[in-house]
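Bumping my old thread because nobody answered last time. Still need a sequence for this structure:
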């Protein structure tokens, strides 16, 4: 049973090639029969060559004609071949039947070669599919059970042994290992992971056993989203390809009309004989067909998408690969994009009657209820101290948070917010805060009110300086973008002016927009588009989503980015590596260059073949070779982006 299955699979995978080989064999035997004068045998073999070699093209051409009421190139090739055969039968010049069969054969060979060329891109994309195992080991009452990935539920605990693929996204409960994340992030070096770290489906476990808790449905894992988006990218035609498709439909009609005119007028205008006229008209149908032009774009863009995916850059469709090469201005979010987003408590300064521990404990009582990174940093810093969570906690987004702890009101937030509750911010603390903010730190003010019901009268306890580390690669990335000729690079942030300018100075950005709300970021992108047309936005948070959607190209951070940002963005940096932006732009520009080269070659071949046809210097087979050769040439040219 195994061999029939393998044979069946082989014939499916290489159907076009087998059809071309059989067509070529029948053509050779038919030619040989004609050479020997065995007309009956030749007239049996040559129609079989036409049928086997041209079946697929005829089927596609007729389907397009009857279902979409459009002419396409496949049908024109068949018409030209049948026309040559008919002319040969009519005139008794059977070599014309051979010419038509050669046309069919070369067209079939070209289709097979294009199929193999595109399969190479398809394999690069499909390789993503093999990155996740089919099953996972789930711990159930202390025993391991193999279950399909699709049956995993949030909260399940799974075991991954050394050398195995991580089956789904999760959080490490126990164990320590190094993970090869190259398939997901493009990062070639293994990454150390231990308890509390997030792991991603499709990454390869190293030497340590891991126990992992599933924290999101398997269908929502990063690799599944990547596969879904890449599959979507394959089916969505970019604007340039849509234009070529529309052009091809009109162009095919023009070719048919011109072919009819060329088949009827020359005998009356220039005195051509009918055989020459019809033969030149058939050759015209072949050489004027825009096959190479149709293949000038999509192979290139799909190759670029596959190349980007291997390097940790996910293009959601070919249109974004085109657009990223045209970007003239780019805007960066600050927190989580130019900085790591992993904020930490840098310094705690207390008022004279309090200690640093008092300030941290008071802040932690209310911040323990906050999902904000600053709140988490404060709670982490106060982890070794003795404190109890507050009650009646109320957060005011972008300003601060208040709550009741030990019958006293605790107020934590920015200076403007806390000032509503205290009579005096204390001059020495204000001076310290100003100095820290000039260094790029975010300052959180902490106050305590013994009488919670009164609006003012709180005591100032101290300030907490929060530092968000600038990404190591940020400055290098900005330098590379400037070298690429990006005309304007700006930073957008909701943070204060001092912190924003400090980070901007560190990375080399001259233009800063600070203290922005999501709507403000959106407005900045619109103004940039009015001036620079094609504008990219790089962000990671929910508040960046409107700007990402408005930008010509939205770029999201794949690991630190929120789900909303990932869904809204056009390009995802899987490893959160900013330097990949320059790589993406280089890919985009190179794809544009290759597409232009391909279009030039395609149009150049068409013009040369048309001139040669009218001058009578080419016959039908040579016209087919030139036409199909140019198609294969531009297809292979597009595959250069795979490297």
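Sorry it took so long. Here it is:
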């Amino acid at each position: 049973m195994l061999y029939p299955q393998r044979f069946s699979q082989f014939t499916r995978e290489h159907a076009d090639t087998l059809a071309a080989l059989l067509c070529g064999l029948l053509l050779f035997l038919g030619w040989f029969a004609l050479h020997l004068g065995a007309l009956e045998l030749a007239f049996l073999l040559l129609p079989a060559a036409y049928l086997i070699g041209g079946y697929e093209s005829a089927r596609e051409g007729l389907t397009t004609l009857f279902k979409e009421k459009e002419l396409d190139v496949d049908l024109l090739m068949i018409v030209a071949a049948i026309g040559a055969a008919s002319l040969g039968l009519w005139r008794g010049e059977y070599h014309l039947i051979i010419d038509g069969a050669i046309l069919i054969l070369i067209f079939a060979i070209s289709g097979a070669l294009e199929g193999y060329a595109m399969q190479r891109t398809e394999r690069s994309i499909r390789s993503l599919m093999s990155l996740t195992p089919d099953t996972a080991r789930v711990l159930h009452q202390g025993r391991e059970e193999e279950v399909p990935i699709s049956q995993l539920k949030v909260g399940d605990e799974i075991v991954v042994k050394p050398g195995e693929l991580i089956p789904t996204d999760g959080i490490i409960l126990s164990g320590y290992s190094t993970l090869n994340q190259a398939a997901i992030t493009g990062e070639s070096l293994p990454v150390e992971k231990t308890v509390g770290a997030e792991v991603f489906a499709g990454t390869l476990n190293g030497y340590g056993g891991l126990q992992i808790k599933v924290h999101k449905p398997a269908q929502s894992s990063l690799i599944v989203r990547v596969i879904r988006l890449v599959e979507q990218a394959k089916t969505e035609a970019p604007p340039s390809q849509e234009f070529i498709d529309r052009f091809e439909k009109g162009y095919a009609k023009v070719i048919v009309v011109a072919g009819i005119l060329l088949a009827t007028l020359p005998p009356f205008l220039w005195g051509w004989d009918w055989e020459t006229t019809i033969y030149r008209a058939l050759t015209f149908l072949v050489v004027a067909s825009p096959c190479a032009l149709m293949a000038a774009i999509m192979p290139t863009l799909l190759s670029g998408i596959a190349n980007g995916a291997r390097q940790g850059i996910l293009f959601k469709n070919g249109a974004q690969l085109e657009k990223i090469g045209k970007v003239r201005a780019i805007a960066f979010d600050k927190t989580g994009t130019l900085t790591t987003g992993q904020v930490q408590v840098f310094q705690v300064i207390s008022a004279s009657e309090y200690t640093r521990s008092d300030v941290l404990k008071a802040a932690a009582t209310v911040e323990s209820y906050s999902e904000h990174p600053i709140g988490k940093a404060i709670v982490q810093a106060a982890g070794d101290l003795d404190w109890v969570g507050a009650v009646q906690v109320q957060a005011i987004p972008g300003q601060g948070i208040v709550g009741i702890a030990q019958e006293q009101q605790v107020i934590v937030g920015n200076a403007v917010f806390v000032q509503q509750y205290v009579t005096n911010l204390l001059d020495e603390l204000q001076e310290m805060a100003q100095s820290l903010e000039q260094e790029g730190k975010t300052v959180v003010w902490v106050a305590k009110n013994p009488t919670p019901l009164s609006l003012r009268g709180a005591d100032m306890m101290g300030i907490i300086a929060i530092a968000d580390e600038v990404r190591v690669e940020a400055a290098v990335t900005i330098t590379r973008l400037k070298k690429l000729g990006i005309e304007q690079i700006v930073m957008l942030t909701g943070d204060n002016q001092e912190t924003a300018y400090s980070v901007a100075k560190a990375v080399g950005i001259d233009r800063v927009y600070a203290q922005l709300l999501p709507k403000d970021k959106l407005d900045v992108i619109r103004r940039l588009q009015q001036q620079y047309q094609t504008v990219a936005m790089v962000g990671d948070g929910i508040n960046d989503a409107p700007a990402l959607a408005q930008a010509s190209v939205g770029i999201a951070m794949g690991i630190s980015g929120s789900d909303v940002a990932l869904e809204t963005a056009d390009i995802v940096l899987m490893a959160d590596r900013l330097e990949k932006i320059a790589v993406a732009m280089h890919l985009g520009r190179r794809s544009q260059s290759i597409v232009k080269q391909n279009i030039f070659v395609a149009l150049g071949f068409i013009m040369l073949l048309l001139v040669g046809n009218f001058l009578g210097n080419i016959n039908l087979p040579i016209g087919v070779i030139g036409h199909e050769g140019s198609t294969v040439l531009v297809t292979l040219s597009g595959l250069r982006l795979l490297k």
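The first strand starts at residue 135 and ends at 140. Let me know if any region looks off to you.
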